[in-house]
Amino acid sequence: MTLQVTSARAAAMRKPKAPEANRARILAAAIAEFASRGYKGASMDAIAARTHTTRALINYYFGSKERLYLAVLERVYAEIRDAERGLELDHLPPAAAIRRIVDFTYDYYVGHEDFVRLVVAENQARGRHMKRFPSLRTLNRPIVDLLGRVIARGQADGDFRRDVDPIDVHMAIAALGMFNVTNQYTFGTLFQREMGGKGNVARRRQMVSDLVLTWLAESAGQPR
Amino acid sequence: MTLQVTSARAAAMRKPKAPEANRARILAAAIAEFASRGYKGASMDAIAARTHTTRALINYYFGSKERLYLAVLERVYAEIRDAERGLELDHLPPAAAIRRIVDFTYDYYVGHEDFVRLVVAENQARGRHMKRFPSLRTLNRPIVDLLGRVIARGQADGDFRRDVDPIDVHMAIAALGMFNVTNQYTFGTLFQREMGGKGNVARRRQMVSDLVLTWLAESAGQPR
DNA sequence: CCCGGAATTGACGGGCCTGTTAAATTCCCC
DNA sequence: GGGGAATTTAACAGGCCCGTCAATTCCGGG
């Protein structure tokens, strides 16, 4: 099987001008363009210009603007999912594991502003595209399972409160982490706060950990 | 002076067809349209259709699409600022006052989805319009002063920790409150969670209070 | 009664954008 | 080396949208 795949891929690779290379470059450019200007604001011509191709070629590969956008969504979600899978928490005490999850999530948002902006754009569109695309609906997020296991361990140790829904915790972490990226402009302008500064990032990230952990520890070990 | 203003305004009111009535209806329609479709997605013709006027008339009143959008932003920010001014907290114990602030903020976002969507849209545009409009830059938000006073009282009572920045607290509250509205579509789809349900709103709102209050109480009363 | 100015309309011009289609180019395989 | 498929290009058509401008309606005051 490996041989078959190899030969097939080799055949596909040596032949034409630059199909998959072009495809990959177009997708990367599309991620940047859609993240920067939103679905409607993004221009197919701009994506073509970024990749030294033409609008017709992009349609030849992806079919339409919406299809291209869906490919973008699929890609960035796959990336965060893969990154989440890389987290190794089982050897950490529950509190430290929580802190690690928060740091990872917070830093991922700060470092992947494109992803955050795409998520926000899709929500502003009321999830219209996502809804109609099955492979995006069934996309699971390992972070919730990880969180669930950590929380269960903390509860078993008597360190965490008992009535905790992992999804609620993830939502709190995601909300606090995304806000810095999503609302940095209005919030920074209104409250004279620079939100991109690295020092502030570390401080706020720790505040998120503290918020979650103090809440998790609240009235822990009470009689069940 | 009052007489002058009165007579001038009376003269302005009785005269023509429906200038300020039209103006108000256009602004309301613009809020809905911009909130629903974003700046670029919004159509001047759609706003005109909603108000039984024409695109030319809207430009006659507001000058351009961008000017109209700025008037929209100014309006919705003025509204939340006025609502925040109505909060009366001085007679409440600090913890109860915090809970009240959280409830107010959370409910305001849930009940004013247009406002939230406009804020998000402006952030997606990197605050481009807001930056260039002085009256939006100098807009202050009473909620931070209220929060600061409440926190100071809680610290004086020894109930709240000492190193607290009111803006940080407001950011946490705003982040958790906005997330339900802003990310309801992707989050709901990915995690099979209905986020509009009223019961869930009350539960999540209380979680926000608990998060903030347990954090505020953490290591309070320690030696200064 | 008529006039002057505010309010309102219809139409034009220019720009940008997307999807398609037919033609041209390139490269692989026989 | 030639057939043929895969890739790429150039140009077209249709749609939407915005700002403007001259023309028209309407109202109130002299």
In terms of topology, how is this protein built?
Two copies of one chain form a homodimer.
Chain A: H1 2-14, H2 19-41, H3 44-50, H4 55-62, H5 65-85, H6 94-111, H7 113-124, H8 128-131, H9 134-137, H10 142-156, H11 166-182, H12 184-191, H13 198-217
The structure holds a DNA duplex (30 and 30 nucleotides).
> How large a portion of the residues of chain A is in β-strands, by DSSP E?
under 5%
User: What is the CATH superfamily of the largest domain in chain A?
Assistant: Tetracycline Repressor, domain 2
The count of helical stretches of chain A stands at: 13
Q: What oligomerization state is this entry in?
A: homodimer
Q: What low-confidence regions of chain A span 5 or more consecutive residues with pLDDT below 50?
A: 1-16
Largest interface: A-B, 52 and 52 residues
Q: Using the CA coordinates, give the radius of gyration of chain A.
A: 21 Å
The CATH topology of the largest domain in chain A: Tetracycline Repressor, domain 2
SS class of chain A = mainly alpha
What sequence of helices (H) and strands (E) makes up the elements of chain A? HHHHHHHHHHHHH
The number of strands of chain A is: 0
Helix content of chain A: over 70%
Examine the secondary-structure arrangement and name the CATH architecture of the largest domain in chain A: Orthogonal Bundle
Report the major sheet of chain A.
Answer: none
CATH uppermost class of the largest domain in chain A: Mainly Alpha
How many angstroms separate the termini of chain A? Answer: 55 Å
- Overall form of chain A: elongated
Domain module count of chain A: 2
Q: What is the mean predicted local confidence, pLDDT of chain A? A: 87
